[in-house]
Amino acid sequence: MSKRINAIDLNVYYGDFLAVEGVNIDIEPRSVTAFIGPSGCGKTTFLRTLNRMHEVLPGARVEGQLLLDDDNIYDTAVDPVTVRSMVGMVFQRPNPFPTMSIRDNVLAGYKLNGTRLSRSQSDQVVEEALKGANLWNEVKDRLDKPGSGLSGGQQQRLCIARTIAVKPDVILMDEPCSALDPISTLAIEDLINELKDTYTVVIVTHNMQQAARVSEKTAFFNIAGTGKPGKLIEYDETTKIFSNPSKKDTENYVSGRFG
Amino acid sequence: MSTPTQETTTPPPPKAQNSLTQGTLPRWTWAAMLAGSVAVAAALAAALGAAFGAESFLMPLWVVLVPVIYLPAMLILQWVRINKRKAIDGFWKNLVYLAFLIALLPLVSVIWSVVSVGLPGLLAPGFLASDMSGITGRIDQETMETGGDVLGGIRHAIIGSLVITLAATVISVPIGLLTSIYLVEYSRGSWLSRAITFFVDVMTGIPSIVAGLFAAAATAWFISTASSLGLMAARPYTMGLTAAIALSVLMIPVVVRTTEEMLRVVPNELREASYALGVRKWRTILKVVIPTAISGIASGVTLSIARVIGETAPILVTAGFVVNANWNLVSGWMATLPVYIYRQFQNPIAPAATEPSEQRAWAAALVLIIIVMLLNLAARIIAQVFAPKKTGR
Ligand SMILES: Nc1ncnc2c1ncn2[C@@H]1O[C@H](COP(=O)(O)OP(=O)(O)OP(=O)(O)O)[C@@H](O)[C@H]1O
Ligand SMILES: [Mg+2]
């Protein structure tokens, strides 16, 4: 199920602009990894290279290698769609499909791909995914109502349910809790804790406590100044990053003296 | 926590004089002022008319004087009684209402005159069910003399309009939709997309008669080439299909432009959400982008139909004009409502007795307006039905 991620000398460009430079990182399967760093340092950009979502933007490209269990996903013969069906993603802003009901939103990965499920199968997928995302109790009586009629936090959990419904190997989350109340945040953190038993989870967060609570390893990204590329400064056990980092920048950032 | 502290803090009763209020006017002020202005304007119009020796009461002068009196009167009253800001706000609001009424005037008067003049013809027995075959000048002459019902109808023209417009829609919508999908989803600002956008803009401005001539020439060339190659027998280019091609030339740019607008407002996040689930691009477009935009696309298409169904010139040069119904798009001439109206006015059946022809023309115009209104209504309903459900538990 879960896969190892290995980036080797990865450079990420928006047109001519080098946004992230020279990332080397090795992410264990069945673990939670947190990306932290100041705004604009390229966390989202790097995260989006992990499932080839980066190249969807015009002019965006990637140099280097990214191995998913030893297979380079940037090999010219690799179909990005295959990569994306293995690496799911939850976006910074909740984006349920407005034309679909809650139920259809959860089943979107199947329905949009034209995969046929029997009624009982799809019922099971919906219930499992919504329970997994801690949303089942709130929506079980209104599954046929539009997904955009939910609150922001509920929508975000719906998006998580949609992602885990297709059972990917890796789940990427870009600040999934930035729009949520403390209770929903806790619910999602619990969820992440459960997800790591089956999936490789990578989460971007601005909340250090959250990074400390959910992740085993933490990657700190930083940027030297505007217009300069973002870089991976330090990547280590979360406890080490927060208690005894080896780089000065990291220490400044996690202790709140910077950014 | 639940100690009864609330009891002790009852809110103070409201003050008799609220220090936040300003001067106000009763709600009915505007109605009273309007009635007053109408009366004053009437008196003024009568006085002016008498002073300049007009025969009768000057109705237009009266209508013009009402706002001329009402607007400044309201301004002054509000300025004095409330404050300057309210007064100026009210003044501009009234100006906007006035502009709205003026803008509505032509529309209302067109509808009024078409309905009042066209209704008797529409109610004539058999008007919708019969065509013009066998209606000669003698028959119209007799109708005039005996005062009987006007004979003849527009069945053939309705059939022609519907068949030709439907064919034009069938041609234009796929082409327009695919073009705009290419422009929005695939082109990424290439030179080809800029060229397409440019030519679509140029096409929007093509005079409709030019579209008709183009369709006629293109079809004639196609038929002559095909028959010289022995692929088909030579035949006249004048047929319903040629007219449909002419109308498509007018419709395609409208469809491209409205659909493009609609596809562009679909948030990128939805596309990315779909890609992130491992959905292919064409499926994303088909199942996410188009359903999200479908209400706008559908109403855009309906409005483009409404725009071409009233075309006269391109039909005249491509489908000609007949007096009986013809369902066949690829052979024989066809009549449409606008051409029918034009012919009835321009070449009355009985040159000496034009009234029956005029009555038929007005009635046909009424039918055309009704069809266009129904199309607009359909566009609204379609937009309502397909619109993404924003709320609702
Ligand atoms: N679509 C884009 N086109 C061009 N440049 C971009 C684009 N998106 C981001 N960038 C640039 O890339 C750099 C990294 O941005 P990114 O969104 O990855 O930052 P981030 O670390 O996720 O920040 P935040 O914490 O605020 O979300 C920034 O300098 C940003 O301006
Ligand atoms: Mg970001």
Automatic annotation (TrEMBL), chain A:
Protein name listed in UniProt: Phosphate import ATP-binding protein PstB
Domain of life where this protein originates: Bacteria
GO BP annotations listed: phosphate ion transmembrane transport
Start and end residues of each ABC transporter domain: 5-248
GO cellular component: membrane
Alphabetical list of InterPro entries matching this protein: AAA+_ATPase, ABC_transporter-like_ATP-bd, ABC_transporter-like_CS, P-loop_NTPase, PstB-like
A GO molecular function held by the record: ATP binding
Keywords: ATP-binding, Nucleotide-binding, Translocase, Transport
PANTHER family reported for this sequence: ABC TRANSPORTER I FAMILY MEMBER 17
UniProtKB/TrEMBL annotation, chain B:
Keyword Transport recorded: yes
Span list, region Disordered: 1-20
Keywords: Cell membrane, Membrane, Phosphate transport, Transmembrane, Transmembrane helix, Transport
Origin: domain of life: Bacteria
PROSITE patterns tied to this protein: ABC_TM1 (PS50928)
Membrane topology of this protein: Multi-pass membrane protein
Membrane-spanning ranges: 28-53, 59-82, 94-115, 158-184, 196-224, 236-256, 288-309, 315-341, 362-383
Major place of residence: membrane
InterPro entries: MetI-like, MetI-like_sf, Phosphate_PstA, Phosphate_transprt_permease
Gene Ontology cellular component terms for the protein in this record: plasma membrane
Record-level Gene Ontology MF annotations: phosphate transmembrane transporter activity
Localization of this protein: Cell membrane
SUPFAM superfamilies for the chain: MetI-like
Domain ABC transmembrane type-1: 158-379
Pfam families, alphabetized: BPD_transp_1
Biological process annotations from GO: phosphate ion transmembrane transport
Function: Part of the binding-protein-dependent transport system for phosphate; probably responsible for the translocation of the substrate across the membrane.
Family: Belongs to the binding-protein-dependent transport system permease family. CysTW subfamily.
The protein's name: Phosphate transport system permease protein PstA
Organism taxonomic ancestry: Bacteria, Bacillati, Actinomycetota, Actinomycetes, Micrococcales
